[in-house]
């Protein structure tokens, strides 16, 4: 116990001595130096200097001393010249001084900067060596195009960032087209600070011209290599073009077969001919069974089952089928799709059996069809053939059988800033169908139907949405024309305030389709937060059997908007001016 007490006393004395020494050192240490900066410079250059000069970065640092401050002030003119040179000012006048301490002990640094006149480009010379310089007309045309697109033209202010961007763009023109191994051989900016002029020279070595070889595919386990080969737009032996690689990669990524895909080539100048195209994919599962339930204010509660097989008969044929049971519609259908072809086309066949009971019109129909679709950029075009046979039953009237064999063509344009949550741009679609009694149809007719949606932002949180829809069927009468080719309207995404397909031709106690359609809508959405918004709208439209009877009815209302993971969720309360009723409408996204 005595030995322990002595040890504790000794340890306490040591700690006390150490604390005293630290206090003494702290008292002897000089206080950090503080200083203010007065900068006289045109406003255009102020931000550049304030954000980059060491004098500003060290201001308030605890380690600053008088010697360090004087060293920084001596270095500042050189720093300023370097920063101004990047903006094209090569003969600035600079004064940097340290003023005496004020009564509070703070130092004052004074900087006066006159940047002078900016240097301007007086000439530029762009040359390309290597295989590119073969004297061919194609190379000459490409070189002239590169020179015409050069951004730092004579009389332009020379800026370092612009100079680097101009070099990158000139090099990129070769890298993207035939010469993926191109490099900058020499670049020179000759500055005359007295005359404030700059002469530019750039020499690019194109390296050899590359050509594409065959596909080298990695990652395939479930699907055959022919799937990738079928959609490959590149022909072995053709000149290298990065756009072709991106097109192949986009096709692979857009297909349902792959979760991801990367495409590229090795740009080795020693082996430029028939370079293998490296394709690496990660596959999606080939079979999927899904179940779902839902509700719609148009067709009521819904239950459905879906099946998908992406590799039917081990040939990458896509088989899909669905059973849907809704209160007003029940259907069973399937389709068989072939993989995309090298020209970008997609072929498919489909079949559908459906029963509907909507506004007193009961239909039972069988539809068989085949089509070919093309997607190019923002447009999609489809043509095909459809056979439809239908049995129509109206309350208090005998049943009526109708059939049509109809070739069709459809075209869709999607030009919006975001497909799920568009805020700017427009969507447009058009379809035409034709049928003749001489070809398995009960009536001759020519049908056209177009829809469009326009999105325009209003301020930071507002958005204007305009919708329009027109349809017409040229025929002697609507008798014998299946209901799918006639027009009814009303419901969630047409004329709100009215029942689903409740606007059309009155036949007894039922509403049936007419030969003409017109719908228009204007909606304002105000986003309260990034996810939630409110809306106010007015809809107008109707369907009729003649243009003379096509009198619009109106619906007005308000709604709530939510940006759900699958698109805008719309909950609307609308008043139908013609029926004097309030209706609740619920929908997701836009019907394109």
Whole-number average pLDDT? 91
Quickly name the level 1 CATH class of the largest domain: Mainly Beta
Distance from first to last alpha carbon? 90 Å
Strand order of the largest sheet: 10-11-12-13-14-15-16-17-18-19-20-23-24-25-26-27
β-sheet strand percentage = over 45%
Q: Got a strand count?
A: 27
The CATH architecture of the largest domain would be Beta Barrel
- Fourth-level CATH superfamily of the largest domain: membrane protein fhac: a member of the omp85/tpsb transporter family
Integer-rounded radius of gyration: 37 Å
Number of helices: 8
Structural class: alpha+beta
Descriptive notes:
The chain is α+β, with helices and mostly antiparallel strands and 592 residues long. It has 4 domains: 35-114, Ubiquitin-like (UB roll) (Roll); 120-205, Ubiquitin-like (UB roll) (Roll), CATH 3.10.20; 212-283, membrane protein fhac (Ubiquitin-like (UB roll)), CATH 3.10.20; 378-588, membrane protein fhac: a member of the omp85/tpsb transporter family (Porin, Beta Barrel), CATH 2.40.160.50. Helix content is 19%, strand content 47%. It has 8 helices and 27 strands. It has helices at residues 2-28, 43-52, 54-57, 66-86, 137-148, 160-175, 225-231, 242-254, and strands spanning 35-40, 93-99, 107-114, 120-129, 183-192, 197-205, 212-218, 258-264, 275-283, 287-296, 300-312, 317-326, 329-337, 345-358, 361-376, 379-394, 400-416, 425-435, 445-458, 462-474, 505-507, 510-512, 516-527, 532-544, 553-564, 567-576, 581-588. A 16-stranded antiparallel beta sheet has the order 10-11-12-13-14-15-16-17-18-19-20-23-24-25-26-27, with no helix packed on it. A 3-stranded mixed beta sheet has the order 1-3-2, covered by helices on one side. Strands 4-6-5 form a 3-stranded mixed beta sheet, with helices on one face. It is extended, with a radius of gyration of 37 Å.
């Amino acid at each position: 116990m005595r030995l322990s007490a002595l040890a504790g006393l000794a340890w306490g004395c040591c700690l006390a001595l150490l604390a005293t020494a630290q206090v003494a050192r702290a008292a002897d240490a000089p206080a950090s130096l503080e200083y203010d900066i007065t900068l006289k410079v045109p406003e255009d250059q102020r931000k550049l200097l304030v954000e980059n000069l060491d004098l500003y970065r060290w201001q308030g640092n605890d380690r600053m001393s008088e010697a360090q401050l004087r060293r920084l002030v001596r270095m500042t003119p050189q720093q300023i010249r370097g920063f101004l040179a990047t903006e094209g000012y090569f003969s600035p006048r600079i004064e940097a001084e340290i003023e005496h301490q004020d009564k509070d002990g703070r130092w004052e640094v004074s900087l006066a900067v006159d940047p002078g006149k900016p240097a301007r480009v007086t000439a530029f010379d762009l040359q390309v060596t290597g295989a590119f310089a073969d004297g061919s007309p194609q190379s000459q045309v490409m070189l002239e195009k590169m020179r015409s697109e050069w951004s730092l033209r004579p009389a332009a202010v020379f800026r370092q960032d612009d100079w680097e961007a101009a070099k990158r763009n000139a090099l990129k023109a070769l890298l993207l087209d035939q010469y993926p191994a191109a490099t900058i051989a020499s670049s020179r900016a000759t500055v005359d600070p007295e005359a404030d002029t700059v002469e530019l020279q750039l020499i690019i070595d194109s390296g050899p011209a590359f050509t594409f070889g065959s596909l080298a595919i990695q990652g395939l386990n479930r699907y055959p290599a022919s799937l990738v080969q079928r959609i490959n737009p590149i022909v072995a032996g053709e000149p290298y073009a990065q756009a072709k690689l991106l097109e192949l990669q986009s096709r692979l990524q857009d297909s349902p077969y792959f979760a991801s895909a990367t495409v590229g080539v090795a740009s080795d100048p020693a082996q430029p001919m028939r370079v293998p195209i490296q394709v690496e994919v990660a596959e999606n599962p080939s079979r999927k069974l899904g179940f779902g339930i839902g509700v719609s204010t148009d067709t009521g509660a819904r239950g459905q089952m879906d099946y998908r097989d992406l590799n039917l008969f081990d040939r990458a044929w896509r088989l899909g089928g669905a059973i849907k049971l809704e209160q007003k519609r029940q259907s069973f259908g399937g389709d068989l799709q072939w993989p995309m072809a090298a020209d970008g086309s997609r072929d498919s066949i489909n079949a559908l059996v459906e029963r509907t009971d909507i506004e007193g019109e009961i239909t039972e129909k069988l539809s068989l069809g085949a089509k070919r679709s093309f997607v190019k950029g923002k447009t999609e075009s489809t043509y095909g053939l459809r056979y439809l046979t239908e049995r129509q039953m109206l309350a208090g009237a005998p049943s009526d059988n109708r059939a049509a064999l109809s070739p069709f063509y459809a075209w869709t344009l999607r030009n919006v800033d975001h497909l799920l949550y568009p805020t700017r741009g427009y969507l447009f679609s058009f379809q035409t169908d034709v049928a003749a009694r001489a070809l398995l149809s009960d009536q001759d007719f020519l049908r056209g139907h177009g829809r469009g949606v326009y999105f325009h932002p209003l301020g930071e949180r507002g958005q204007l949405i305009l919708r329009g829809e027109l349809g017409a069927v040229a025929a002697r009468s609507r008798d014998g024309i299946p209901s799918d080719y006639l027009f009814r309207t009303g419901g969630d995404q047409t004329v709100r305030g009215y029942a689903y397909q409740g606007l059309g031709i009155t036949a007894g106690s039922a509403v049936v389709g007419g030969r003409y359609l017109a719908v228009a809508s204007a909606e304002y959405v105000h986003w309260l937060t990034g996810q939630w918004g409110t809306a106010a709208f007015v809809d107008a439209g109707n369907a009729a059997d003649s243009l003379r009877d096509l009198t619009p009815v109106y619906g007005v209302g308000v709604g709530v908007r939510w940006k759900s993971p699958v698109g805008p969720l719309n909950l609307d309360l609308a008043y139908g001016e013609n029926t004097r009723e309030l209706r609740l409408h619920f929908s997701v996204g836009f019907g394109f």
